[in-house]
Amino acid sequence: MAYQNLLLEIREAVAIVTINRPEKLNALNEKVMDDLDACFTALGSDEGVRGVILTGSGEKAFVAGADIAELAQQSPVGGKEKSIRGQRVLDKIENLGKPVIAAVNGFALGGGCELAMACHLRVASENARLGTPEVKLGLMCGYAGTQRLARLVGKGRALEILLSGEPVDAAEAHRIGLVNRIVAKDRLLAEAEALLRKLIANAPVSLRFSLEAVNAGLEMPFGEAQYLEATLFGLLCTTSDMQEGTAAFLEKRPAKFTGR
What we know:
Distance between the termini: 27 Å
Radius of gyration: 19 Å
Number of helices: 11
Structural class: alpha/beta
């Protein structure tokens, strides 16, 4: 499927989605969000895709933020609708049921930082800078950035980033847990793909249920989250992949998972 603002490449079960507006530093506008919505809907139902890498075109920016010209025209009602719709698209990425890695090449600001945080893991180039400068425009995060950032780095550090509007560099982002790894910029996609392939070598249903347990469990009281984990564990005990995985371990051979 062709997209106006995205490039999509699928190779050996890995989809590489590239936001492609280099002249605007890959800024998010309504059309980009439409493309992301449609693309991740398709990838979620494609059984041939086991994991996704999301990045931006060029070396300057993953996504430098929202399209300010578009934002400046928002009415109160339209602004709320824009926020809710964006949250829905990012929720779709977070709940895809397959690992999604953000390969952060350069600036990930505002909506770009929010988009990266909706991915399950973040691999950053050494020149990456992440932040939420919305307060400098009289705005705030609208794509659940206030919620995801606090969950990733803690309340105090999140508030410092949110209220100052100042970005952090790759080293600081790694120190506080906002990114998982820092790599040389000329190795960014290769390292992100190597990490993703390590993840998707494991059983697909196990990955999906582990993602569900973390995503849903964080919003539950601990006892309820434990019960969810136990339920998902029990369901995994019925799968062919569990039988194959345990047999392969006992027989000292690589497992051949089918996602069943």
